[in-house]
Amino acid sequence: MKYTDEVKVPGKIALVTGAARGIGRACALALAEAGADIALGLKNVKADSGLVKEIESMGRKAFPMQMDVSKMEEIHAAVEEAVRYLGRIDILINNAGVAPENYIENVTESDFDYTLDVNLKGTFFTSQAVGRRMIKQRYGRIINISSQAGFIALPTESVYCMTKAGISHLTKCLAVEWAQYNITVNAVAPTFIYTPGTDEYLADKKAKETVLSKIALGRIGEPREVSNAVLFLASQAASLITGTTLMVDGGWTAM
To answer: What are the pLDDT digits (tens) for 120-176?
Structure first.
């Protein structure tokens, strides 16, 4: 086997949450390009983004599912559907996330609860639902999307920062408990990435200049630069890596 063959996932089944756009979409496409069939966890399964056709054009299966990870019933129903349609789940990408902005003194309980429900509770219980099946099959790769915000403080993003820090530590807990079942659990922590979720913020020239001044490489990231890291961690090339958070931040946290 060539070294490059190890950074592929032929014949694997992957579930990607928050797959409709941005980093989630890029992860779904990267895994499909590398040989996986994809279960697409979507907050609104009826919204057609063309992603299914794009994956199917690669000769891979794509199965869209209603999956708002803030709702326990949708988590369990989606995991059951994915296994029923695709047979199993080998790879889980916990990507779904929200980041409502507000200064600490103005944060409402509803914003606080919703951010935790999606980012932290959703990641935990999706991991649990899929992990139970991975334990039985004695194999699994789980990659959580954390953020550089879990390692630094971003004004107006206190609750988001807190949840992303929690995801990185949850990653360690899952990795330690499930290592005995040949399940690796890692996280990827991106910096600012060009996505529909950051378009408005980065359109502000002053805000963008501030962000760029913090990134050692001096540029905003692209979704594929995150999905490439995710693909690596999902592949055989990363078989001895577990419990770690890989910074994909252009050097922000090194400065």
So the answer is: 999 999 999 999 999 999 999 999 999 999 999 999 999 999 999 999 999 999 999
How would you write the chain as a 3-class SS string?
A: CCHHHHHCCCCCEEEEECCCCHHHHHHHHHHHHCCCEEEEEECCCCCCCCHHHHHHCCCCCEEEEECCCCCHHHHHHHHHHHHHHHCCCCEEEECCCCCCCCCHHHCCHHHHHHHHHHHHHHHHHHHHHHHHHHHHHCCEEEEEECCHHHCCCCCCCHHHHHHHHHHHHHHHHHHHHHHHHCEEEEEEEECCECCCCCHHHHCCHHHHHHHHHHCCCCCCECHHHHHHHHHHHHCHHHCCCCCCEEEECCCHHHC
Look at residue 253 and tell me if it is in a domain.
Answer: no
Active-site hit among 85, 160, 181, 194:
160
Is 194 part of the annotated catalytic residue set?
Answer: no
Q: Is residue 204 part of a domain?
A: yes
Tell me if the pTM is above 0.90: yes
Could you tell me the CATH number of the domain that includes residue 14?
Answer: 3.40.50.720
Count of structural domains within the chain: 1
